[in-house]
Amino acid sequence: MLLVVAFPSFSNAQEVHNNYQGTWKDKVLEVTDEKMEQLFDREHLVQTMEIEIITGPEKGNVIIIENDFQKLQKGDVFYFNHNIFIDGENSYTVINVARHGALLFLLGVFVFAVIIFGRWQGVRSLVALFASFMAIIFILIPGILYGWNPLLASFFVAGAILFAAIFFTHGFNRESTVAYAGTMIAVFLSGVFAIFAVHITKLSGFAAEESIYLNFNTGGTLNFTALLLGAFIIGFLGVLDDIAITQSAVVTELYNSNPGITKREVYTRAMRVGREHVGALVNTLVLAYTGASLPLLLYFNLSPASFETIVNLEIFATEIVRIIVGSIGLILTVPLVTLLAVKYLQNYKSKHSHNHHGHSH
Q1: Is 109 part of a structural domain of the chain?
Q2: One domain for residues 51 and 189
């Protein structure tokens, strides 16, 4: 939805000589012709289609357009841009296939799987996830566009997201409070480290093409370095939440399994678990960012430029710094949360531990 709303601005930035009329939805009535044309020494498919406009001021009109975006069939629904050139000629450009039905189906499968596996806790986690998206869409994004500092806004919204993710999913209890406090301290320290890392690497925040269009459309009013730092913070919240809750639960279970255990021994054992968890999550971070950038990696692999030159490009340097900052955040979270848990969770009986012992008796 956000991409569709933002697309008119993108179109204006690319085709300033056009008078943009809108982005509308239509349906393919018939594919009347298909042919292969040359583009950069390669052939690509061009279709001539009869379509019916189903949204917008021209709803109900049937027109003929050409499509070189991707192959479409009779009955397919897609979005197109309507522009009028200076000479008065109408231009209809296919921009995307309508995927709402498929996305809603996949969302339904996801919600069903979470509820079946997680039961009531799964429902709470979905509520927390929904609240997190609402905070980003209706607080963070409008706030930044209104003029808030992106870094500070991201930090405070991160606090709200973590609050929802931890307390709504795992309950309002001492374990959750310890996890939340430790994670927020780690987020703050990671943010400080991120500022240092971005400063010494001289990242501008303009690595992605959409940043250039955003800067154009906002009149250069946004601080893109701060925006990049805010993106770092929002990006690693999920893994910090994961490891913080795990460390709190581990400490509680260690105390409950052996009431006579010392705090030092609890800390040592919990840290052993935390180190293993950090190793797995750092690997997860690296693979996730690498997988998302795989087409770009393949593209640059074909480049005649050296590895040193490619890695030095801001688009790659940004991802490297992102991985390092996220990993540092993980490493900071483990000892901080573990230390707070050892101090404040002694003699604490979690709901799950209590139920477990009750069944054993």
Answers
A1: no
A2: no
User: Is the residue at 190 inside a domain?
Assistant: yes
Same domain, 226 and 310: yes
In sign, the C-alpha dihedral spanning 188, 190, 196, 197 is negative
What is the distance between the alpha carbons of residues 145 and 218, in angstroms, rounded to a whole number?
8
User: 51 forms bridges with which residues in the sheet?
Assistant: 28, 63
Of the three residues 31, 66, 98, the one that is the final residue of a domain is 98
pLDDT tens for the chain, 361 residues long, are 344 444 444 444 444 455 888 888 989 999 999 888 877 777 888 899 999 999 888 899 999 988 888 888 999 999 988 888 887 788 888 888 989 889 999 999 999 999 999 888 889 889 988 999 999 999 999 999 999 999 999 999 999 999 988 998 888 899 999 999 999 999 999 999 999 999 999 999 988 888 888 998 888 899 999 999 999 999 888 889 889 999 999 999 999 999 889 999 999 999 999 999 998 888 888 888 788 788 888 888 888 888 888 889 898 899 899 999 999 999 999 999 999 999 999 887 766 544 433 333 3
Range of the domain at 217: 119-360
Find the radius of gyration of the CA atoms of the chain.
26
The answer as to whether 108 is a domain residue is no
Backbone angles phi, psi at 72, to 5 degrees: -120, 160
3-state SS class at 55: coil
Place of tokens 């709402």: 100
Residues 237 and 348 in one domain: yes
Q: In sequence order, which residues have a C-beta less than 8 Å from that of residue 227 and are 6 or more positions away? A: 144, 150, 151, 205, 211
Asked whether the beta carbons of 222 and 215 are under 8 A apart, the reply is: yes
Report how far apart the first and last C-alpha atoms of the chain are (Å, whole number).
54
What's CA 251's distance to the chain center, in Å?
Answer: 31
Six-digit token string for 257: 């399994």
Determine, yes or no, domain membership for 110.
Answer: no
Q: Are residues 168 and 293 in the same domain?
A: yes
